[in-house]
Amino acid sequence: MDKHKVLVVGMGKRGKHHAAAFNANPRFEVVGICDIDQEKLNASAPALGNPRTGNDAAAMLREMKPDVFCFCTMPHIRYEMVKAAVETGVKLIAFEKPVALSMMEAFRLKKLIDSSGIKTVVSHQHRYGAHYRKVNEIARSGDLGRIQMVYASATGWMTHMMSHMVDYMRWFIGNPDAEWVMGQVSGKSKLADNHPSPDYIAGIIHFADGVRGVVECGAGAPDQPEVAKWWGKNRICVQGTEGFAEVLTNGGWRAVTAKGSLKGEGAMNYDLDMPPYIQEIGDWLDSGKVHQCCFDEAFKGCEIVMGIVRSALWGGQISLPLADGPDEIEELKAKMPQAKAIVNSFNKAEYPG
């Protein structure tokens, strides 16, 4: 069986992780890498078998016609990248979270992807960590009784981390749709970031199965003192009538059920988490088994996040699914008050107060 040819765009940290994992999997061949920084390409190519390098993603797509187009770029050029891949006729597109910076753009992407029929995945790869999988196993086993609530917090700001948090919240409780959301935001300093976000966002999610979700990201999110790494201070907890189970991105897992008090180790590790993510891309291409991180599930998470932002802008509960609407980030820039977020002490290095 011929290998699937892969073009990877973006040779920053995440792009290099993707390229290395594709290169290590016998189902794939990295035939090209692309970046506007030639020095990054020169440094990355030897470890990937010296594939072709270039600075123009669209031109490389047209000329090389890869099977898989993977891009790990800043979020403001999602649509342009997907459009170029669709026009070339690739078999699968893989890109980094978040899905989009507004619901308007997310709808444009969905229309383009759905009409093309091209398989598409979004990199929510934390779920492949052994500690995440253990909490999912416990949550789905029935050991927690009737699931009542799922809670998630991350110290990182919305556009970096909320997509992850919502994706795993849904996964832990069986991927139900959300019926409505409500939320609030505070602080504008990160709206100028390359991942524009309010400094702090908190939201309530009502899922169709009756489970209540609570999610918060940013300046006001609580510390996880068990975790040293700032970007790893993320917690997701599933609570049921018979106990709870929770995961810390860089702090393992723990649970209390009728079987007793349980815990285990685990931390985000790209060397361990990326290979199964890439393998599932091969499985989808070769056997038709839909990837866990398929675009359709990521799109539902994007709706939840943007619904919470709309609630903060307009007030009240926001019914899902969403209809088309304004650019939420631009609305935040225009309408949020200048008052600064109240920053938790351990977060002050990241959120000027």
Task: Detail the topology: elements first, then pairings.
Elements: E1 4-9, H1 13-24, E2 28-34, H2 38-44, E3 52-54, H3 57-64, E4 68-71, H4 78-88, E5 92-96, H5 103-116, E6 119-123, H6 130-141, E7 147-154, H7 158-172, E8 178-186, E9 200-207, E10 212-218, E11 235-240, E12 243-248, E13 252-257, E14 260-264, H8 270-287, H9 295-314, E15 318-319, H10 328-335
Parallel strand pairs: 1-2, 1-4, 2-3, 4-5, 5-6, 7-10
Antiparallel strand pairs: 7-11, 8-9, 8-15, 9-10, 11-12, 12-13, 13-14
Helix pairs in contact: 1-8, 3-4, 4-5, 7-9, 9-10
Commentary on this structure:
This protein has 353 residues and is of the alpha/beta class. The chain has helices spanning 13-24, 38-44, 57-64, 78-88, 103-116, 130-141, 158-172, 270-287, 295-314, 328-335; strands spanning 4-9, 28-34, 52-54, 68-71, 92-96, 119-123, 147-154, 178-186, 200-207, 212-218, 235-240, 243-248, 252-257, 260-264, 318-319. Strand 12 (243-248) and strand 13 form a beta hairpin. Helix 9 (295-314) runs parallel beside helix 10. The longest helix has 20 residues, at 295-314. It is globular and about 55 Å long. 49% of the residues are buried. The mean pLDDT is 96.
List descriptors.
nine-stranded mixed beta sheet; 2 domains; alpha/beta; Rossmann fold; six-stranded parallel beta sheet; globular; 353 residues; single chain; Dihydrodipicolinate Reductase, domain 2; 15 strands; 35% helix
Question: What's the quick description here?
Answer:
This protein has 10 helices and 15 strands. It has 353 residues and is of the alpha/beta class.
